[in-house]
Amino acid sequence: MTETLLSVRDLKTWFSTGGGTVRAVDGISFDIKRGETFALLGESGCGKSMTSLSVMQLVPQPAGEIVSGQVLLQGEDLLQLPEAAMRDIRGDRIAMIFQEPMTSLNPVLTVGQQIGESLKQHKGLKGAAARARILELLDAVGIPAPQSRIDEYPHQLSGGMKQRVMIAIALAGEPDLLIADEPTTALDVTIQAQVLVLLRELQRKTGMSIMLITHDLGVVAEMADRVAVMYAGQIVEEASRAQFFAEPAHPYSRKLFESLPSMEKRDRALDIIRGSVPSLATEFKGCRFENRCDFAWPPCRDVIPQWHRCAEGHGVRCHLMDEALAATRPNDVAQEADELVAPRSVAVGNELLVVNDLKVHFPIRKGLLKRVAGHVYAVDGVSLKIKQGQTLALVGESGCGKTTVGKGIIQLTRPTAGEVLFEGDDLNALRGERLRRRRKDFQLIFQDPFSSMNPRMMIGDIIEEGMVAQGVGGHRAQRRARVAQLLAHVGLAAEMLDRYPHEFSGGQRQRICIARALAVDPKLIVCDEPTSALDVSVQAQILNLLKELQNELGLSYLFITHNISVVAYLAHEVAVMYLGRIVERGTIGEVLDHPRHPYTQALLSAVPTIDPASQQEIVHLEGDLPSPINPPGGCHFHPRCPAAQPVCKTDYPAPLAVTHTHRVSCHFAQT
Amino acid sequence: MLSFLVSRLLSAAIVVLGVSCLVFLFIHIVPGDPVEVMLGESARPADREALRQALGLDQPLLTQMGHYYSNLFQLDLGTSLYSQRPIVEMLMERIPATAELAFAALVVAMVIAFPLGVLAAVRKGSRWDQGAMGLSLVGVSIPNFLMGPLLILLFSLWLGWFPVSGREGFASLVLPALTLGTAMAAILSRMVRATLLETLHEDYIRTARAKGLSESVVVWRHAMRNALLPVITLLGLQLGTLLGGAVITEVVFSWPGLGQLTIEAIQRRDYPVVQACVLLISFTYVVVNTLTDLVYGWLDPRVRLEGGR
Question: Is B179 helix (H, G, I), strand (E, B) or coil?
Fold first, then answer.
């Protein structure tokens, strides 16, 4: 257990670009012991993936280069090995799985071929022996009916299954070290729970070490033995899991915790990390976090902090740990948590939006004559209400139909049936010009701020366009003034309006998208996963902004998300969707603290908590979300439900009112 | 797979019928009179009338069209107005020549383009890449009517290795095939390079490398088959064009193919021959396209398994 398997010493991987040398990995050192899980934690662009690629020597060529350092695998420096010898290490002693199982498998080769390749390369297995081993591996990673799956192609498998296949490929060489680069980031939370359990089990059986690369503190809390935090190309803190979660020492680590949304923080603004990550092309003279740190004082700018040991096995790169130097630091100006603007008084109970039995079915056409051969029941009878000035969160896993509900409500996809009453008017009945005029009342913010703006338009024009289309905001000069005002409102400088989207960071772009939505003075904004593409610290900024705007302008949000902690922080009410229907809805407290539906219970339990001491029992769901083309009869959830009874297979449960706000569609919600 | 095939063939038949109908109408709308071309401007009106009757050109357009289609369904394409020979026979003479040239050109193109494109992609930014792409630029820039005579000058007149024109044996095929093939290779090699480069950036290539596979396995087994998909489409289109007769190259080398036949027929207002040629060209196009789709399905399981959609 104590033998060091991998030892990385002062590793530097630099990229030469047009803008100078980018020091993606700038002198990092760490050890991974046999059988342990070592987590490398950091936000996007901090160099964590590049570290793993450097260990594998798969750094993109010719731009990237490992300029110095050692990567010692049981004492042997991999960086000194010729490429041919390195190939015997890759996939054999060190294997790797990646973030995107959807794109990480070759679409034109079968599952069996892709696993077999590794067996042939490293174990010399061919033919029947290889096939037998492939079946064994597929079985080991929990793929049901391996006999039929072995000859399938990746696109025939779900995301979770693909990641299992990736793990099987990695296991083929019986590696000593498995590098898992964000292995569950692209997966739903219930599937994530399955994959994490699988990784732990495999580790227990094989005794391999895992280098886990992630941005998710929850995943770290569940998986890691040791944690290293990376920032701007360096490790700034390293500790055991217990030490790290009990007492994160580096200001950056602490900020990561503080910017996480949660129920307890509902009444105040989230802590944010101001500014943004410095360009890695700069030559640093002091601490890399100095410009964003609440504790910074002059030495931070001028002296590069050294590695300080604050306890056995707990090291930090920060001047605060240097007692002699820290003594020179002036006392802190009392820091106060930002108070949110008090909510504007709005008539509570005023229902802005009432949706009754909304259905959106997509026909599936087949054959030469394009006959309708079936339907995708994307949304199949959804009812919900949003009060003025409040937020309803719609949660569920990918493919459950939550985005389609949003699009159906604002009539971007015309519903098949049902009512969408917006201030009493049925939007489903509006057509043409009347609908177009009405659109100013409801706007949309998308998940991906990178692709939701036209890259050839300046952001001023992007924001103004809606006003022009709706004929609001007066003449051009007035509109431009309003655009400038909106930019200021979302925290950007008014001068930025002649810039193009690519000149902004992800968080800034999402602010621009929010300004665009606000431009026409909407009453309702449908936010479709607005923070899932963003880092935690940036997410906090956007959540703060949304909350502020709601309080100030009395906006209502339909907040579509899969992230439960965001829901807990932001929403007033929540509706849980499964396969096109809402299975449970109620106030935040009712649903999150006292979930009645087995699906809600499983969903909530699968969310990794950042409290490693919590003994939360995970309710594991078997299998994947069934297809909305052919939903299971009776209660849609019964094939995966741990509490299913015979009646669940035959009858869809009617919604049961637990309280006047809390409704559950389950036969056994009462018990 | 079967329903995929059937639906493909059905839509192919509809396309061929539609094209033949359009061609029939257009050629009658376009000014020009075959009788005048055959008899000359000084012919007597009575003779013209007689010839017109004999050829059936005095009938109403719909009747002519009816005749045309009833014959077509019996695979009778009629006779040439000019030479009075059965058109099927004329086409049968020409098809082998054109097909031979087309396939030879395709082979030349692939033999040049694939190694060049792969080399350029794998060694992106190197001298090899620059050289290959420079060569391809030259190839794209030289039109066939210049390339043909240049090759004739060099290999026939100066070196005397190959005949100047005609179709007599393998030696006479070399120069026209090179002319067509190099032009195709120029475009094809760029396409191979571009798609291979794109594929080499895919996540599954990183997976393949992480398995410890050698670079040649990564390129040929993992990248190439994916990169081929768009290339196949281009190849199909180009082969379709070649099989319709490479007009300029056939004229330059006096190659007795379909292109030459079509041009002659147009010049003589030989309606039935023009119709037959266009019909054959569109038919070939449709067949090649269908084949392309089938190859595509074979290479890409995602297309294959979606079947009849």
Answer: helix
Q: What's the order of all strands across the beta sheet hosting A76-77?
A: A20-33, A4-17, A64-73, A76-77
Calpha distance A132→A137 (Å, rounded): 9
> Does the distance separating the beta carbons of A62 and B213 come in below 8 Å?
no
Q: What is the average per-residue pLDDT within A142-158? A: 87
In a domain, B262, yes or no: yes
More confident residue, A512 or A323: A512
Beta-carbon count within 10 A of A613 CB = 9
Write the CATH number for B233: 1.10.3720.10
Q: Could you tell me the CA-to-CA distances from A51 to A46, A47, A57 in Å, in that order?
A: 10, 6, 9
Tell me the two tokens of residue B166.
């005609």
Backbone angles phi, psi at A581, to 5 degrees: -130, 155
pLDDT (average), residues A139-150: 87
Angle, helix A111-123 to helix A127-140, in steps of 10 degrees: 110
For an interface test with A, which of B3, B126, B207 has the most A Cβ atoms less than 10 Å from its Cβ? B207
Distance separating alpha carbons of residues A516 and A612, to the nearest angstrom: 41
As a whole number of angstroms, the distance between CA B188 and CA B173 comes to 21
In a domain, B23, yes or no: no
Inspect the interface and report whether the beta carbons of B210 and A155 lie closer than 8 Å: no
B3 neighbourhood in chain A, CB within 8 Å: 367
B31 — contact with chain A (CB < 8 Å)? no
Residue A620 structure tokens: 């594991």
Mean pLDDT of chain B: 82
pLDDT at B309: 34
Query: Which pLDDT tens digit goes with each residue over A82-124?
Result: 999 999 999 999 999 988 888 899 998 999 999 999 999 998 8
* Chain B residues with CB-CB distance to A109 below 8 A: 221-222
Q: Is B5 helix (H, G, I), strand (E, B) or coil?
A: helix
Q: Which residues pair with A11 in a beta bridge?
A: A28
Q: Are the C-beta atoms of A90 and A172 separated by less than 8 Å?
A: no
Residue A441 and residue A523 in contact, taking contact as beta carbons nearer than 8 Å: yes
Task: Annotate A503-531 with DSSP letters as a single string.
Answer: GS-HHHHHHHHHHHHHTT--SEEEEESTT
| Tally of domains within chain B | 1
Q: How far apart are CA A519 and CA A460, in angstroms?
A: 11
Contacts of B223 in chain A (CB under 8 A): none
Residue given tokens 């007149």 in the structure block: B157
A117/B203 Cβ within 8 A: no
Q: Domain span at residue B260?
A: 87-267
B222 contacts in chain A (CB < 8 Å): 106, 109
Closest C-alpha to A253, from A322, A163, A320? A320
Q: Measured between CB atoms, which of A103, A366, A368 is closest to B203?
A: A103
Residue B60 lies in a domain: no
Cβ contacts (< 8 Å) between A105 and chain B: which residues?
204, 207
Residues 6+ apart with CB under 8 A from A253: A229, A236, A237, A244
Per the domain annotation, does B255 fall within a domain?
yes
Pairing between strand A417-422 and A524-528?
unpaired
Residue A267 CA to residue A326 CA, distance in Å, equals: 34
**DSSP for residue B257:** S
User: A345-392: per-residue pLDDT in tens?
Assistant: 555 568 899 999 999 998 887 766 677 888 888 898 899 999 999 999
Q: Which residue of A has its CA nearest to B297?
A: A108
What distances in angstroms separate CA A49 from CA A99, A179, B13, B285, one per listed residue? Answer: 10, 10, 54, 49
Residues contacting residue A304 through CB under 8 Å, at least 6 positions apart: A284, A285, A286, A287
Interchain contact, A368 vs B10, CB within 8 Å: yes
CA gap A28, A597 in Å, rounded: 47
Q: Please tell me the distance from the alpha carbon of residue A296 to that of residue A329, in angstroms, as a whole number.
A: 9
d(CA A527, CA A217): 24
